[in-house]
Sequence to fold (271 residues):
Amino acid sequence: MMVHPQSLFFALAGLHMLDDPRPLSGASIVFVMGRLGVGESASRSVLQRMTAKKFIVRHKEGRKTFYTLSDRGRAILREGQEKMFAGWQPQDWDGRWTFVRIQVPESKRTLRHQMASRLSWAGFAQVDGGPWVAPGQHDVVAILGPEHSEISPIVVYGMPQPPTTDEKLVGAFDLEALAADYEAFGEKWRAVVPASLSSVEALVRRVELHFDWLTLTRSDPQLPGALLPEVWPGTVQSASFRVLDSELSVREGPVVSGFFRGNLSEHCSIV
Fold:
């Protein structure tokens, strides 16, 4: 697994901080991230950055440090969870698309990258270096944020007209590469047998599972079924993810309280 400390922390926070009001022990965060290949200094650096950005709130209890999500952090994670578990597009798609044209001056490269990232996250793709497109109706002002006033986007919602076809627009999305990523996800996680794992191992592997799934869903535009191949691996792996997530959740159960209080290492023979 390629190590991305901040993304691993987001996966962990989404699992154990978003819907649980209990403060999470910093020692347990560092422990789990260490088991996933992140060094202690890198883990503590992530916690410091997330605190500075007001994504999490830090407080002390004696010699122990604990973290909770800020309102901002909760909102960001909630948005990510919605895409992870629900997708963006209704399946009763009516054939209409949202088209967005933006022009960002060369002098504002950072803004250009920011706008592209926001559109990609919302399920848009760029057609031949030109307009951005996504099936269904989207609130582009909300997607682009306050910065939209700096670029004066042109937004159109409607049906493509000949010679433009749905197939042409779908070609802007690299579904072949995405399908391969889903297949690789399935191949990796089919080998995991939750019943063979200790509670600590199940907890750690569940964070890794959510990290992998979050990485996939970030790049998945969640197209309506009518625009996808008849057999789409994303649908198959979504079901597999939910089953495995449930099984790992049951398996990790005995150590969750220790996880929140910073006593996770007591349940593990290898620290």
The two ends are 20 Å apart (CA to CA). The first helix runs from residue 5 to 16.
